[in-house]
Amino acid sequence: MSEFMAAAAVLLALVVAVFIWPVWRAKRIIAVNPSTAQSSAQRSDENLALYREHLAELDSELAQQRIDQAQHDRLSAELQRNFLADQDAASERAFNLRGGNILLLSLVLLIVFSGWLYLSRGSSADVLFSQMQQKLELANMQAFRDGKSPDAQPTRELISAIESRLERHPENTQYWYLLGRYGSQVGDFSAAERGFRGVYQRAPSDPGNASALAQAIFLNNGNQINDEIDFLVTRALEVDDKDTTALGLAGIMAFERQEFADAARLWGTAVNQTPEGAPGRDALMSGVARARAEARRQASASGEAKNEQPATQETAGWSIPVTVSVAPELQLPADGTLFLYARAYQGSPMPLVVTRLPAAQLPTTIVLDETMAMTNVSDLLAQGSIEIVARVSVSGQVAAAAGDLQGLLGPLQTDKLPETLTVVIDTLL
């Protein structure tokens, strides 16, 4: 805001220098030397007296027959023209002085009106808000560099500024989004819910809006699920079935319903959509492991209750995290594609479970689950032994080709799969 005011002051100074200063200077000259205005009026009176005197002389000359009527008329007309010319010059000087006063008054009114119009209709508040936002982001970045937690007070002040702007511009979706974002940053989940609700109400079909509101309600509700969250999560997944926020909340709801296999699948899908090192990815991984353990425990308890053998992994839902890395001596292709799949050990090369993602994301952890299966899970488990294949394709094609990079892990017993698997890509085909 200070930069804007400085620029405005410079422009006003130019206006004063170009327009107002000459008028003011002329008025100062008249004020300092009032004889200037008086001499102008006196000259006008003298011209009138001289005009009358010369006209009387012409009449006398005509009466004494020293000139004829034609000469008298010609000389009278010339005398009148000279008198009127002097009068016009005096009138013009007076008019110019009045015009200067009008110009000065108009400029003052224009400056006042422009200032009022900008303050009432312009974007001065937006400029101030933008500067506050930039200052906050720079301060937060510096705090992170210094290993400190950012000060929450500037963010709260920015939230107050956003709410003030929303009172005047309630249809500004960007301000509603910023209210939700900054409210979440400082743990003001009430403000976050108001902000994301404003966004969702104005754009309910845009990806991410329903899930952002659902998460804000969840946090503002003491981490408790309610019917509105259930509706919003369903809506979010209809719009985008890879929405990680919605998948995370859907996993929580499935876990609370003790549908542990579904929870593991949902959280596993969210893991696969979340970049390595992103906030929350480790928590999702822990959730997958816990859900898988609960699913096995639930299946075992169900089998024991029926005096049967413990239930298979299919009953519990099949999913397993696989960590994939590349040996240091190998160079990843710039545009390679990673294929990760499970297949029968020393059997058909046809993948039974498969997924793909850009190789640039390596190293990473991917959750293989039954949603990636190309056949029934029972067919996979019936293999007895499987192997995990991680292959980086240069061409982007599923079929292996020369120049591809590959890593194998196996054989693995399908009924005794460990909690996590690790595959190292260490072979150049």
Mean pLDDT comes to 77
**Relative helix content:** 55-70%
Strand content: 5-15%
Shape: elongated
Strand tally is: 8
How many helix segments? 14
The biggest sheet amounts to:
5 strands, antiparallel
The H/E string reads: HHHHHHHHHHHHHEEEEHEEEE
Query: Poorly predicted ranges (pLDDT <50, ≥5 residues)?
Result: 304-316
Report on this model:
The chain is α+β, with helices and mostly antiparallel strands. It folds into three domains: 2-122; 147-305, Serine Threonine Protein Phosphatase 5, Tetratricopeptide repeat (Alpha Horseshoe), CATH 1.25.40; 320-428, Immunoglobulin-like, CATH 2.60.40. The protein has 14 helices and eight strands. It has a five-stranded antiparallel sheet with strand order 3-2-5-6-8, with no helix packed on it. It has a three-stranded mixed sheet with strand order 4-1-7. Strand 2 (337-344) and strand 3 (353-358) form a beta hairpin. Helix 11 runs antiparallel to helix 12 (281-305). The longest helix has 53 residues, at 69-121.
List the helices and strands and how they pair.
Elements: H1 2-32, H2 35-63, H3 69-121, H4 124-145, H5 153-168, H6 173-185, H7 189-202, H8 209-220, H9 227-239, H10 244-256, H11 260-273, H12 281-305, H13 313-316, E1 319-326, E2 337-344, E3 353-358, E4 364-369, H14 377-381, E5 385-393, E6 405-413, E7 421-425, E8 427-428
Parallel strand pairs: 1-7
Antiparallel strand pairs: 1-4, 2-3, 2-5, 5-6, 6-8
Helix pairs in contact: 1-3, 2-3, 4-5, 5-6, 6-7, 7-8, 8-9, 9-10, 10-11, 11-12
